[in-house]
Amino acid sequence: MVQVAIDPASDAAHRRGILNDLVVPEVASLLGFVKGMWMNDGNGTGTCVVVFESEEAARAGLATLTRDGGPPVIGFGLHDVEVEA
């Protein structure tokens, strides 16, 4: 899980274009990727939840999701999936 700062006044179509054209394909190509969701609360915080097959793959993926060049990272962490619906 990664949370980033987003300018709430920024162009939503531009943000989605970057996600769809760059971020999602890169993350989806990572070893062990299962699925991901990119969410926006509309108040300046974006949250990305990505599921990987293993903790090792998740740790490697976290390095990609939090590297320099993207939006400012507010927080991040690894969590075990206990229940899914």
What would your notes on this structure say?
- It contains 2 helices and 4 strands, in the order βαββαβ.
- By secondary structure, the protein is of the alpha+beta class.
- The protein has one domain: 2-Layer Sandwich (Alpha-Beta Plaits), CATH 3.30.70.
- The protein has a 4-stranded antiparallel sheet with strand order 2-3-1-4.
- The two termini are 18 Å apart.
- The model has no long low-confidence stretch (mean pLDDT 95).
Give the SSE layout:
Blueprint: E1 2-5, H1 12-28, E2 33-40, E3 45-52, H2 55-65, E4 73-76
Antiparallel strand pairs: 1-3, 1-4, 2-3
> N- to C-terminal separation?
18 Å
**Percentage of β-strand residues:** 25-35%
How many structural domains can be distinguished in the coordinates? 1
**Any idea of the CATH topology?**
Alpha-Beta Plaits
Approximately how much helix is present in the residues?
25-40%
The CATH class turns out to be: Alpha Beta
Oligomer classification: single chain
CATH architecture: 2-Layer Sandwich
Provide tags for this entry.
single chain, 85 residues, Alpha-Beta Plaits, globular
Summarize the structure.
The chain has helices spanning 12-28, 55-65, and strands at 2-5, 33-40, 45-52, 73-76. With 85 residues, the protein is of the alpha+beta class.
